[in-house]
């Protein structure tokens, strides 16, 4: 199953913290160090808009990586995502510095409430003129639970059951105001039509919500929904809800299989696959000459440290690898309780072992290394050739990770985007004023709750 899309979606993968998803990035020569300031993020925003990016997407966790060895010491000492600011505040600063760039932030369905998330993102969508998206996560580990006063994290499938009900409530709240509900007639005193504002009455397994949502519809109908389901249950969730699905792939063959499977899942959920953008994560390393590319890639890969990767694995899998023998295989029971099942399954597949060891997780997860995502390295024409080959085969666009910030995005916008525009893969200008319009997504139906 192939897509009929022509334009290539470009999404920047960001963190409201001291590093990108590549934890060694803060030590790269091309990385700025003023990450605690608005100037840092607004500079990135203007660079991304200049480079034709549709969306700046903030990943997030609700705790510092402190499971490795039962301590936060390594995370703080090495800067392993040890700063975690609220991404929704940062994304609004970026939106205010741009006119077209979409902004997205991660919020958890496990540790927030539907009304809070619905009002928060609906307000942001109005303040940005319809350029906001919510990245839906169920969260991963017991450190996050502890920050919210809970003793342990919910089981994997139960988190998704809760998330289904959570998103159902949020989208019904967003659909409770019809687009022409506002009247604003000063002479008659009529503000809005009560018949076009609908009350929510919900009694469910996890939530009860009764009331009238107080935020009108935005120019793009409602915020765009992102999801990065990797497990089977996660992919089913994404197929039901997501406007943008964020994926990983190890090679073209596996990427093509994942792309086909996700599009089929969307269709099986009763939706048009062309109404969803599927975007795999890649790292791009580029420069003016092949020699410079080779030197830059070697320098960036040299920033990786095995111990940093272990800390990230512990965080993602909710399992302390710190005191475990390096070569000892995990038991079936130990593998079953790992939180990030998509990562676990990827290591099992790539290692060829049903019961991988700590060494296998370090070697095959790519956690903490540049190769955690597919690396596309080369001069601008070489990178553009590769992206053109992958476009429509493995995805409708790409989530571009950064090995240095803002250096990687400066390079992409200065060198790669002009070549993509020359080939007609990225527009010379933005096609619409809203994120939904720029991604080619349909307006949501007006839903009476």
UniProtKB/TrEMBL annotation:
The protein's name in its UniProt record: FMN-dependent oxidoreductase (Nitrilotriacetate monooxygenase family)
Keywords associated with the record: Flavoprotein, FMN, Monooxygenase, Oxidoreductase
Entry superkingdom: Bacteria
Record has Oxidoreductase as a keyword: yes
Domain Luciferase-like: 36-394
Protein residues bound to FMN: 60, 106, 156, 160, 231
Family: Belongs to the NtaA/SnaA/DszA monooxygenase family.
Species assigned in the record: Saccharopolyspora gloriosae
């Amino acid at each position: 199953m192939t897509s009929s899309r022509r334009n290539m979606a470009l999404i920047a993968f960001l963190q409201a913290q001291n590093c990108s998803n590549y934890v060694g990035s803060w030590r790269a020569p091309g990385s700025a160090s003023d990450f605690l300031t608005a100037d840092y993020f607004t500079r990135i925003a203007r660079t991304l808009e200049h480079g034709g990016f549709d969306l700046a997407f903030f990943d997030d966790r609700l705790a510092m990586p402190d499971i490795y060895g039962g301590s936060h010491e390594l995370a703080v000492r090495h800067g392993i995502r040890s700063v975690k600011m609220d991404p929704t505040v940062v994304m609004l600063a970026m939106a205010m510095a741009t006119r077209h760039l979409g902004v997205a932030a991660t919020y958890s369905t496990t540790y927030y409430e539907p009304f809070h998330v619905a009002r928060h993102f609906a307000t942001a969508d109005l303040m940005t003129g319809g350029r906001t998206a919510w990245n839906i996560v169920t969260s991963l580990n017991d450190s996050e639970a502890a920050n919210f006063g809970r003793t342990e994290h919910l089981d994997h499938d139960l988190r998704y059951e809760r998330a289904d009900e959570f998103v159902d409530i949020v989208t019904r709240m967003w659909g409770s105001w019809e687009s022409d509900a506002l009247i604003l007639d000063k002479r008659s005193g009529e503000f809005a039509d009560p018949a076009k504002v609908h009350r929510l009455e919900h009694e469910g397994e996890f939530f009860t919500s009764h009331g009238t949502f107080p935020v009108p519809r935005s120019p793009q109908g409602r915020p765009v929904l992102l999801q990065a389901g990797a497990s089977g249950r996660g992919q089913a969730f994404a197929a039901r809800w997501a406007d943008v699905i964020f994926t990983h792939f190890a090679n073209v063959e596996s990427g093509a299989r994942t792309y086909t499977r996700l599009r089929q899942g969307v269709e099986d959920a009763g939706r048009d696959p062309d109404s969803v953008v599927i975007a795999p994560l890649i790292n791009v390393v580029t420069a003016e000459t092949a020699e410079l590319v080779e030197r830059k890639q070697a320098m960036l890969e040299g920033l990786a440290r095995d111990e940093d990767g272990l800390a990230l694995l512990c965080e993602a899998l909710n399992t302390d690898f710190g005191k475990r023998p390096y070569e000892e295989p995990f038991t079936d029971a130990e593998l079953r309780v790992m939180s990030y099942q998509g990562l676990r399954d990827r290591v099992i597949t790539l290692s060829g072992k049903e019961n991988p060891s700590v060494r296998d997780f370090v070697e095959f997860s790519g956690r903490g290394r540049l190769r955690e995502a597919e690396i596309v390295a080369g001069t601008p024409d070489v990178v553009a050739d590769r992206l053109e080959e992958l476009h429509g085969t493995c995805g409708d666009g790409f989530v571009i990770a950064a090995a240095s910030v803002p250096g990687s995005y400066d390079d992409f916008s200065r060198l790669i985007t002009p070549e993509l525009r020359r080939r007609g893969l990225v527009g010379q200008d933005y096609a619409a004023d809203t994120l939904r319009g720029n991604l080619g997504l349909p307006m949501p139906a007006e839903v009476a709750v």
